């Protein structure tokens, strides 16, 4: 995938801490977050609230500069479009993959969980001098991080967009036996990893049991603008071919994709019940990666949850 270069971007390596100028500069580089660790952060644009983009498993800031839009002309990437009107930040978690390269953030022991990722994000934004209120945009497991951040630091979060987000509600929507199969599949890399990083020893993996426990124990979300974007392309018809190709284990029930689709639909509906007045968009014409295939949907959702803050 190609990356659109950010216009007028300044390379800042480890020295962005404490930047509190009224007109924040564009930054892209490693930020010292303490304890001998640095994480990669890039921010561009001006205007409140600042948008923080939280990627899915193993995905870096690079994804938010990517568009796979089939529109004519193609819709611009989420980061690029948002930066026209608001401050927007994206970052690399430890163990994420940047194209065919390894993470630009220092490695940590794996597996990780939402609480560790949440603490890292908070330390990163503070060290970089990025000030709220924030609109959090979480894709896939990034939705788990965004939700825990909003529950932990409610005064710092103005709104949230969940992009086909993972949740503990999926477990609730399945039987014990179904969850046993689901949990096993969550450890399977059904999608191609570039050969250059296939043996990456520090690649991101998730302790999903610990993460779900953290979300269940977290305080309820405060009322806030929330948009839930859910994939509407079904996985059920794809499972037999994925099993035949070896992308999924041979013992996977061929009809389990249908089970997953039904459970995921119920889980996404539960996300839309987290706060009063949440908007649930199910007609996305997209699979899991809505931010890539339908970036304008994500941009529109972010702007809709930002408006109450801008208008205040």
Which percent bin holds the helix content? 25-40%
CATH class: Alpha Beta
Total number of distinct structural domains: 1
| Largest sheet features | 9 strands, mixed
- What's the pLDDT, averaged over the residues? 88
Radius of gyration, Cα only, in angstroms? 19 Å
Ranges where pLDDT stays below 50 over 5 or more residues in a row are 1-21
Number of helices: 10
Structural class comes to alpha/beta
Percent range for β-strand residues: 15-25%
Quaternary form? single chain
Number of E strands = 11
CATH topology: Rossmann fold
Give the ordered list of helices and strands.
EEEEHEEEHEHEHHHEHHEHH
Distance between the termini: 39 Å
Q: Give the CATH architecture.
A: 3-Layer(aba) Sandwich
CATH homologous superfamily placement: Alpha/Beta hydrolase fold, catalytic domain
Main sheet: strand order? 1-2-3-5-4-8-9-10-11
What's the shape?
A: globular
Tell me about this structure.
The chain is of the alpha/beta class. The protein has a single domain, classed as Rossmann fold. Helices cover 32% and strands 16% of the residues. It is built from ten helices and eleven strands. The chain has helices at residues 78-82, 114-128, 141-152, 169-172, 176-186, 208-217, 239-245, 256-271, 290-293, 295-311; strands at residues 10-11, 27-34, 37-44, 50-54, 88-91, 97-98, 101-102, 134-139, 157-163, 226-229, 279-281. A hairpin with a 2-residue loop joins strand 6 and strand 7. The model is unreliable at 1-21 (pLDDT under 50).
């Amino acid at each position: 995938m190609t990356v659109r270069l950010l216009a007028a971007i300044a390379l800042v390596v480890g020295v962005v801490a404490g930047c509190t100028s009224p007109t924040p500069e564009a930054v892209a580089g490693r930020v010292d977050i303490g304890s001998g660790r640095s994480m990669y952060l890039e921010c561009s644009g001006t205007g409140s609230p600042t948008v923080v983009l939280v990627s899915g498993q193993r995905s870096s800031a690079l994804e938010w500069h990517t568009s796979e839009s089939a529109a004519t002309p193609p819709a611009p990437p989420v980061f690029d479009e948002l930066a026209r009107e608001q401050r927007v930040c994206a970052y690399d978690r430890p163990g994420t993959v940047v194209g065919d390269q390894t993470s630009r953030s220092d490695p940590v022991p794996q597996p990780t969980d939402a609480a560790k990722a949440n603490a890292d994000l908070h330390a990163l934004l503070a060290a970089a001098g990025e000030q709220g209120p924030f609109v959090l945009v979480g894709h896939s497991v990034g939705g788990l991080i965004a939700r825990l951040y909003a529950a932990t630091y409610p005064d710092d979060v103005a709104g949230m967009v969940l992009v086909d987000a993972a949740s503990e509600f999926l477990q609730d929507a399945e039987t014990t036996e179904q969850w046993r199969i689901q949990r096993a599949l969550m450890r399977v890399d059904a999608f191609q990893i570039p050969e250059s990083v296939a043996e990456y020893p520090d690649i991101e993996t998730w302790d999903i049991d610990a993460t779900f426990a953290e979300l269940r124990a977290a305080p309820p979300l405060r009322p806030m603008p929330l948009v839930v974007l859910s994939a509407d392309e079904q996985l059920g018809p794809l499972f037999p071919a994925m099993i035949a190709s070896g992308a999924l284990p041979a013992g996977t029930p061929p009809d389990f994709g249908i089970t997953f689709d039904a459970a995921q639909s119920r889980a996404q509906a539960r996300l839309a019940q987290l706060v009063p007045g949440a908007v649930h968009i199910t007609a996305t014409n997209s699979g899991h990666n809505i931010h890539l295939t339908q970036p304008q949907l994500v941009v529109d959702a972010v702007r809709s949850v930002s408006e109450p803050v801008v208008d205040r």
